[in-house]
Amino acid sequence: MGCTYDADGDMTSDGSGNNFWGWNVSSKQKWYSTSSTAPTCGTNGKCLIYDAFGHIVAYTTTTAYIDQWQMQGGALATLSASSLETLRIPAPGGGGLVEVNPNTGGYNYLHGDWLGNARVLSSVVNNTEYDDRAYTPYGEQFTSYGLTATVYQMFAGMTADFNNGIQYETPNREFSVVGRWLSPDPAGLGAVDMANPQTWNRYAYVAANPLSAVDPTGLGELPTGAACRNSANAGSPNCVRYSADCTQAAGFCPPESMNNDEFGLLLNGGCAEECQYERNIGWRFTGTLYGKPYNQFFSSLNDYANWRTGIAALPESQVYETFMAACQYLAGCDPSAQYTINAQLRGFTQNIQVLGPDGKPLPLDVGAAAGDASHTGIGHGGNDSWYIGGMYDVLHVVNVQIPYASAVQGGEVHIDEFSPYGLGAPLHLIDYAASFLIKGASVTFTCSASGGCN
């Protein structure tokens, strides 16, 4: 097609004369334009801004700035001028998304297929099907029944919010609907399996196997079969380096001989000679997260960031964080002791009650809670409650005298992402709305400060 590239191998045009890209020093897309001249962000063209983990936090569509909030539990909120445009919430059990659109009052369900494509759109309210669409193996939408708009595009776990019809986004690379990445694999030769020529192309998508594998991170194919998801490999940050039968790919060199006291740079890890194509430089994290010890190697900071985010998103990690923050406001609670904790996911928050020796929830220390509170709480079955903290990650303690939802008499505690007061009020409404859409079953954990939650 006459594609052009910069010195780092990033595609700068596709040869059509209509699509042009600019890149930053990290090979992340900086802008897109229909002409070869870089746009003036906020005036014309499309520009992108990222966080430290490579997630898009803002982009421009000509003159409008659109903000994206990556939220707990995998939810994604899109805002324009502080007004919520859309909220996408992963459905319990996976396999789809709930999309909230306050502009239309719609609550829609995006039904995913085995690859994570948004195939069918239906209404959560009346179970009416609105749209049915189909994709080519590499993500180009070729037919649609129902809605004609190009919204709701999601292919293999990748969204197309920024540049509908042209590309899909991941935290690490951008994928075009012509079936190739716009930038080369950052692993370089580390991504090569000499026994599999399909891996030699640094722009190839899932080693030319798009019906059986996905790559939602842009760092390597991930099998879609249940065997890998249910195996011991599924929780590994190197899962993208495993083949379809969940065995280690030939080019992966395990770093057993690498040792480090703290998270730091490692050189020449003692890899076997046959692993010469695997990068032998990386990082190891050794320490405690959410009460549990970890000793984990990472070949890139992106791998580390994805792993760390995944640990934080685990229900037991969220319950542990809430337990440690709540213990000082529960009468008789000793964080060094071991407790049974009842938890229920409502919206994006884990609501917990800590059980005492008698099997009943520990009561709330009302004096301590009221003394440290920044605001008086609202809702929650008509029970008195208090918010402790500022705008973000606000501890909400409830003195349950009137049982509601899964809570019985005693203290109940959860952490809200945003306070319902001041600047946090509009975003707190997202938590509130989600609490009606997402309700998990009650789960029991055993927790202590030094042992985490299990």
Would you mind describing this structure in some detail?
The N and C termini lie far apart (55 Å). By secondary structure, the protein is mostly beta strands. The chain has 5 helices and 32 strands. It folds into 3 domains: 178 residues; 125 residues, no CATH class; 140 residues, no CATH class. It has a 12-stranded antiparallel sheet, covered by helices on one side. Strands 26-25-31-32 form a 4-stranded antiparallel sheet. A 4-stranded antiparallel sheet has the order 27-28-29-30, sandwiched between helices. 11% of the residues lie in helices and 35% in strands. About 13% of the residues have low confidence.
Shape: globular
**Total beta strand runs:** 32
**What summary fits the major beta sheet?**
12 strands, antiparallel
User: Helical proportion?
Assistant: 10-25%
SSE-based structural type: mainly beta
Strand order of the largest sheet: 3-4-5-6-7-8-9-10-11-12-13-14
